[in-house]
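In practice, a research group might receive sequence data for several interacting partners and want a quick structural hypothesis before committing to experiments. The following worked case mirrors that situation: the sequences arrive first, and a predicted assembly follows.
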Amino acid sequence: MVVFSGLEFIFRFLPVFLLIYYITPRKYRNAVLFIGSMVFYAVGEPHFVVLLLGLCIADYLLGRGAARRGKSGAVFLFLSILLNGGVLVGFKAAQAIQGGDLLPIGLSFYIFKMLSYEGDLYTGRIRETPRFIDAAAYFTMFPQITEGPIMRCSTGFGEGAHGAVPGGHIVHTGDVEDGLSCFVIGLSMKVLLADRLELLWTRLSTIGYASISTPLAWIGAYTYTFELYFDFWGYSMMAAGLAMMLGFPFVRNFAHPYASRSVTAFYRDWHVTLGEWFRDYLYFPLGGSRQGAARTIFNLFVVWVITGLWHGGTLNYVLWSMVLFLLIVWEKFVVKKLLRKFPFLGHLHVWILIPLTWVIFAITDLGQLGTYFTRLFPFVTGASPVGMAAGDWITYLRIFWPYFAAGIVLCIPKVSHFVWNRRRNPVIVILLAVLFWISIYVSANAGSNAFMYFDF
Amino acid sequence: MTTLSADRAIEYMKKFFKKLMKMPLTVILIVSCGVFVLFLIPGIGKTSDASGENLLTEPLIQIGLISLHDGENPFGFGIGETASAGGGSALSSTDTSGSETAELSSKSGSSGDEETKENGAADQSAAQGDTAADGSSDAASDGETASSAETSSSAETDASGSASTEEDQEEAELKEKEKNLTYVHADHMPQEVNDDVVGAVDYGIADTNYMSPDDETYNTDTEGVFAQNGDYYRFQDVDALYFSDALIIGNSRTEGLHGFSSLGKTAYFAAKEGISVFNIFDKTLNYYSPDGSQQSASLTDILASRQFGKIYISLGINEIGIGTSKMFYENYRKILETIREAQPDAIIFIEGMMHVSEHLSSTSGVFSNTIVVQRNTAVSTLANGHDIFYVDMNSVYCDENGNLLSDVTEDGIHPYASEYERWVDFLKTKGIIRTDADRGAVSG
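A structural hypothesis for the assembly, expressed as tokens:
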């Protein structure tokens, strides 16, 4: 039920919750949101719901202290960093050592929300300390608890925010409609694009990386690139849409990263709320880029090491983040002028180097990862670029080209702006309704019938 | 007073509809979902199982969409009434087996610990024992494999009533057969003419809904094309040429064999991802010829297009979570009968399905080698040692616990592309040559 594209969520949890939420008087809506979210979380993670509740209470209390600011506030801020950081690092470490699936769902996301909450109270970005129920609703709200976006408390819950009053939100019909449109767009990107492309990516590991041809290895790199993008972008759209339907402002998590002109810019537009979190709560406090080149490089290094570890405890994530760190330093200090002169070179960084970094991100086993790169670049080791099956890449391209074509089209910012600006156009409305039904048809038959995924 | 409140109500309604007009997508989705559900409600009896349990776990819309996907009619009104009948019967037979397996689970649970890799072999020998017992009514020597010297004399006595010319002819034929070193004449099928079913460790978590009771019998019926006639052949080594008139039928694993092994260039293949004993005749298969050409065709059409010397069948993993072992066996049996009808002279090889990895078998109740072994054991009884043989490639693909070797697979089901040649090498040790014509298309 904790997956938004699952039919139990769409047809059971969501309608029941929305009905209760809408008929609840405004000032009790955050209470309803908190209870509903705890139910939502408990279904997916029955054991760790206690941990979540405990953290909510602790962070609320610590936040009251941090809001005092000054020296005593700093003590509370320090304690909250110790607590939240300790929990996150503890689980990540246990996961890395033990393996398996120890990490509570969404821990990385809600811990980051809690940390930002404490920081914002200490620095005064949140001017009025929220009541417990408001803070708890912010920490746990179900649209964001599993995979973000890491919304700031000041955007959705603070005074002066979008339609917010203490305790709850005004919901405008236009927001419900827009939120639903977002949700449907996100749903179809995830179900119809990402989940389809995943089949090809899985297929490559089934064949065995050692046996694929070089063209297929490159197709694989782009398959994973698109899969990850539309999975995460789609999910973020669903989450943002759901939050809008509850009266929160739209939270933008992806701003067309593949249209950007450098790796640096890519990461400003990719997973925006995480990037901004690292910027505001780590990079800037460390001094950002204002204290000389050496200090900037060091700060970038710290940010990227932690970004890597945040994503996962295996070595490939460290490798992934270090490659990105080097790429960003390279862009910032070596080829900066060149990139400004020839923007196309920056596009090449994004279109060629980023997919390669995603391969590092995707393959957790370093041995397998090495094998994959020898298939991407067979000439380095003198291996043949031909796979076990001659022309394997033609076979798969023939099947999957429509998904790639759709993916490329959706990477063009103008296309999605065009659609979004005309979202009230009857043609677009009907298109979205059709996409919704196709998506749930596919989702129904993939989810309940395990054998559709496992078509051997 | 009343008119005032009526006016207000109308005013309120107007406002409400105005708001609704501003949210067309919301309205369309709510209305379309509502209409779909309204149509589904009268059809609930058709789409949910008898217990109604899936109504509790799955939203009605999900059940409706799944039955639409399966080609059934989930609605209350009667379009395509017959189409739903097939699916319905499959479901109901699953249900009855469910109650049978309830008592079985305790039984297999207690013996689970002792059951090791001999499990499968023991089952197989028990099955062979049954065959012997059934056939023994007209035979003097019981169970033991008769030597060819003995059998030739018994053959003479059988033929004693016939005309002398026929007798001579039969004797000549027999002599011809005996020149073939792999030929055995015996009252009962000697065990070594088929592969033993490779066993596997039982992790005790196999879903008994997909199994049959351990005492289920499969081999009582050896009539028709499955009948044994006293003539048996042993496996021998063959070369690539042997497969030049072979048709290899199977699911994605066989697709892999075609794509990634040397056999892809020597044999005919009829394969498709997702096919099972339940749907093989309903699906369009990929039909590959040794010359590299590829067509889409039904198995019926492929079998009618030409005569093959050998037919290999590898099915089972897609339907591992559908029906029981008995149902699997029954469908397998029908497939063999259909193939035999279309291909009267082909040597048929039943390939035991490849096991799954330890990771899958020890964590999934469905992808369990316990179920695989039971089903392999069931279909192995269809071999008659004469023109239908059972071969089990797990002897070259599994570790000592009967699990698919962990370093040959990523997903626990399919071998890596580089590991398919193992399968070919295995099949090359399992040739059946009755006459020179069986050696391959060129010499035949």
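Before designing any experiment, note the following. Chain B has three domains: 2-69, 120-145+186-439, 147-180. The first strand of chain B starts at residue 183 and ends at 185.
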